[in-house]
Amino acid sequence: MSDLISSLYPPPPPYVRFFTAENVQRAAELRRQHGPDADKVLSETKDLRFLVPPLPPNKPQYRSFGDIWNFEDKFITLEESGIQQLYEEADNVEEETFTVERIEELKKMTKSLLLNFLEFTGLLAKNPAQAHVKIEQIRVILINLHHLLNSYRLHQSREGLILKMEEKIRNDTETIQKIEDTCLQVEERIRSLVWREKDVEVEHVDNSQNTEPSREQIVESVRKSVLEGA
Amino acid sequence: MTDRLTQLQICLDQLSDMFFASLSYVDQNHAAVRLTEGDEMLPDPDHNPPPETEFKANLTELTSDIILKTRQILTIIDTLPGVGVSKDEQLKRIESLSQELAEIEKQKAQTLQRKEKLGSMVDDLIVQVSEGIAQTRD
């Protein structure tokens, strides 16, 4: 056993010694010569067998770190993982949605968890031999709880997205409002400078009252009022 | 801050940790009991249980911690967002929100444009007015 864990990393697989520069070159040459059949030829040639890339796996699962994993991400129901489902549910409920009933179940199970722990401590005091039954029950409850919470995950992501969007809309509306307010203030200021001057001019020029002042007029009147103020 | 769901999952893990911790505490710190009345109590140098009052107080603290954690979990469960909303409803809402958002973006661009225009107009005004002042002072 001790020589198995003598180095930090496991040694490279034995077939690495076939990946020499020479072999790689030979393989490339054979590939050029044989075209589409190259893989077959290569796998029949000595030393070059391992230079053929393996086929993609055709099974739905793979093993890694002693566990079995699915290639496809999918929601595994409690039944599939061999755990008793403690909560009842209508048949047509999607796994991804979250109903009021599930909230109730979550609460019920949390309370039940507490009660089970109490019973567990009692059992440990009175009859430790039976404790493993309780441990198993607590385990099932915890797994059920986590399962329900995990099934809520996607739902929450969508809900989070909605909240973020609402926030962005609110912020943008606020920004727009602020910019518009400032613009209005500036326009108001310019106008007031212009009209102050106009009041003086009204005595002299009557017809300018109803027409919008031209750019030059605005400039002229602003200049005057600034000068007066100075 | 993490989202409510992660919070809830962490709380559950903490709760199970607390279960274990309190059991360990009781296991390691409880006082020895006589099996038959009148037996002599032999001192054990490796076992020094705390005085009875302290042990009881710690037990009370551990239990109230567990109760509090459970309450916290129940509260978080109550505040989970979007309960009772179906997936379709959510997707529809996201759809309408994204339209609204696009609309707002457009409006924002327009407002910014208007601001730019006004800004350059004010710039012009300032330049022209100051030129005018400079000329009249000559």
TrEMBL record, chain A:
- Record flagged with keyword Transcription: yes
Keyword Transcription included in the entry's annotation: yes
Give the Gene Ontology MF terms in alphabetical order.
Answer: transcription coregulator activity
One GO BP on record is: regulation of transcription by RNA polymerase II
Entry keywords, A to Z: Activator, Nucleus, Transcription, Transcription regulation
A cellular component annotation (GO) from this entry: core mediator complex
Return the InterPro entries for the record: Med7/Med21-like (IPR037212), Mediatior_Med7 (IPR009244), Mediatior_Med7_sf (IPR044888)
- Predominantly, its location class is nucleus
Q: Pfam families attached here?
A: Med7 (PF05983)
**Where is the protein localized?**
Nucleus
Q: How does it assemble?
A: Component of the Mediator complex.
The record's similarity note reads: Belongs to the Mediator complex subunit 7 family.
- Check the record and name the PANTHER family matching this protein: MEDIATOR OF RNA POLYMERASE II TRANSCRIPTION SUBUNIT 7
What this protein is reported to do is described as: Component of the Mediator complex, a coactivator involved in the regulated transcription of nearly all RNA polymerase II-dependent genes. Mediator functions as a bridge to convey information from gene-specific regulatory proteins to the basal RNA polymerase II transcription machinery.
Q: What is this protein called?
A: Mediator of RNA polymerase II transcription subunit 7
From TrEMBL, chain B:
Note the InterPro entries from the entry: Med7/Med21-like, Mediator_Med21
| Lineage of origin | Eukaryota, Fungi, Dikarya, Ascomycota, Saccharomycotina
Q: Which GO terms describe its molecular function?
A: transcription coregulator activity
> Which Gene3D superfamilies does this one have?
Mediator complex, subunit Med21
What this chain does, per the entry, is described as: Component of the Mediator complex, a coactivator involved in the regulated transcription of nearly all RNA polymerase II-dependent genes. Mediator functions as a bridge to convey information from gene-specific regulatory proteins to the basal RNA polymerase II transcription machinery. Mediator is recruited to promoters by direct interactions with regulatory proteins and serves as a scaffold for the assembly of a functional preinitiation complex with RNA polymerase II and the general transcription factors.
Subunit comment: Component of the Mediator complex.
Similarity remark: Belongs to the Mediator complex subunit 21 family.
What's the name of the protein? Mediator of RNA polymerase II transcription subunit 21
Query: One biological process GO term for this chain?
Result: regulation of transcription by RNA polymerase II
The alphabetized UniProt keywords are:
Activator, Coiled coil, Nucleus, Transcription, Transcription regulation
A GO CC term attached to the entry = mediator complex
Subcellular location field:
Nucleus
Pfam name, any one: Med21
- Coiled-coil ranges per the record? 87-114
